[in-house]
């Protein structure tokens, strides 16, 4: 009996170490996995207006006159046409200082992947239309198309037949089709960047 007691006493520290007091654990709610494409699957992520893909936003600019807004966005559009990713013929086509309207045409590289010995990109074509009023600017991005694989077998896609829900999203609206997905993602990202930049400029954010 004495030997048994000694053996049990010897094992007790080991047993204590091995035990796990579940009541002491901090309860954590299960973490739901988020879909990395959630942003691109949202309803109206790629809006179609009168049969054409067209993103439109109103950027508020409290305290600024239509002339001030016109001057700021005109300068930005000119700057955009001169950026390194631009291809020839990107230009500020309309600068109407009477009606405070601006229109620019862009042909630029949209890069999907840039790695050693591997460059995947498309030529993105689109128009930006701006109407300036006191305290706000109406901005549209429309007439979007792509010229892909220009170095081998060029393929032309219109946004309407390539990145809309009908052609880029499955019927359950839970995932993007693999081939057109990269075009939809990058185009939405580019649109968001442009609209956010305009908002930053018009609201003097640093």
- Write down the Rg: 28 Å
Number of strands: 7
- Sketch the topology as an H/E string, one letter per element: HHEEHEEEEEHH
- State the low-pLDDT regions, or none: none
- Major β-sheet profile: 7 strands, antiparallel
Structural class: alpha+beta
The proportion of strand residues reads 25-35%
**Per the principal axes of the C-alpha atoms, what is the gross shape?**
globular
Distance between the termini: 81 Å
Mean pLDDT: 89
Counting DSSP H or I runs of 4 or more residues, the number of helices is: 5
Q: What is the helix content?
A: 25-40%
What does this structure look like?
This protein has 206 residues and is α+β, with helices and mostly antiparallel strands. The chain is built from 5 helices and 7 strands. It has helices at 2-18, 38-41, 66-81, 165-168, 178-202, and strands at residues 48-49, 52-60, 91-96, 101-115, 118-133, 136-148, 155-158. Strands 1, 2, 3, 4, 5, 6 and 7 form a 7-stranded antiparallel sheet that branches. Strand 1 (48-49) and strand 2 form a beta hairpin. The longest helix is centred in the C-terminal third of the chain and has 25 residues, at 178-202. The protein starts with a helix and ends with a helix.
Question: Main attributes?
Answer:
7 strands; seven-stranded antiparallel beta sheet; 5 helices; 32% helix; alpha+beta; 206 residues; single chain
Sequence-ordered SSE layout with sheet pairings:
Blueprint lengths: L1 H17 L19 H4 L6 E2 L2 E9 L5 H16 L9 E6 L4 E15 L2 E16 L2 E13 L6 E4 L6 H4 L9 H25 L4
Antiparallel strand pairs: 1-2, 2-6, 3-4, 4-5, 5-6, 6-7
